[in-house]
Amino acid sequence: MVTEISLSDVRGLIGMETGLSDWVTVDQTMIDAFASATDDHQFIHVDPERAAAESPFGGTIAHGFLTLSLLSTMNYNCLPKVREQTLGINYGFDRVRFMTPVKSGARVRGRFLLSEARFRGAGMLMTTYDVTIEIENEKKPALTAKWITIIQFDPKDRPDDV
């Protein structure tokens, strides 16, 4: 897997899978920490006994937003770094869908397909990734989304052909 690319290489990757992250274990400690950080203590996330008895999941599940937030670490784990990048900005998401709950103890990984890349202004490149978070041994993914990011760079590094 390529670990570093140039700004001039990015557009050639449109339509290609550009990263597949390592597996990340979503354990109860992670779920509890996220619950504390977001003040979302719904029993399906933080009470294993009650979740096993009263929910259809057989135990606790990760918050959907916890699963979504793991994209950041997955991105750093597998996407090639752009040499000229001075700053990365999370611009937002289009069409986030939570498909399958992530059970406590499950392993997940991110799959990234670069669907769009366009230069904006003198020193910005907007990228859109079709992202999927897969759950180990599950047919359906945990989530799918379009993730939009901005790569900022020094305008002097802008490729001549754009």
Automatic annotation (TrEMBL):
Residues 13-127 form the MaoC-like domain. SUPFAM superfamilies: Thioesterase/thiol ester dehydrase-isomerase (SSF54637). This is MaoC family dehydratase. Pfam families: MaoC_dehydratas (PF01575). InterPro entries: HotDog_dom_sf, MaoC-like_dom, NodN-like. It comes from Rhizobium leguminosarum.
